[in-house]
Amino acid sequence: MPSPILLIAPESTAQAVADALRQSLDVAVETAANRRAGLAALRRREFCLVLLDESFAATDAQGADLLYQNAASAPVLEINFIITGPQRIVRQVRSALTRRAHDHAQAHTAVTAALHSKLNSSLTGLLLESQLALREAGPKQEEKLKQVVELAGKLRNQLRM
Question: How does pLDDT run across 92-117, given as a tens digit for each residue?
Fold first, then answer.
């Protein structure tokens, strides 16, 4: 199960939204009734998304900045829970989670491609150097260098797959 969602809002408005999120998206939701409780939750564990009641951000800009800083990689959505219905919040959260999953997939693909490229480059160098050394090797080193060339070739073929 993915990391939970943190919902920072007064208890009177948070419960209906938390229930709607749990039911509609099948996600774990942790609620915090105020900024201090929200900060404590962010320091305690990682969340995939933070929902912040706009009233907290409007009345305490420095506190909101602290929440943003402690959210780490979790996106923070400021929402007016009083005028925004639970179903609209569910749609916004679904969209944010989809966007986050897409961003993570793109980052994973980019990291994989970069690692593949680096390994392939190093392996090509190893293969060329070992082939050159094999040409100049004496009979004692020839067998070991053949094994190195063969292993490097196998690794290179595995990287191509």
Answer: 999 998 898 898 899 999 998 888 88
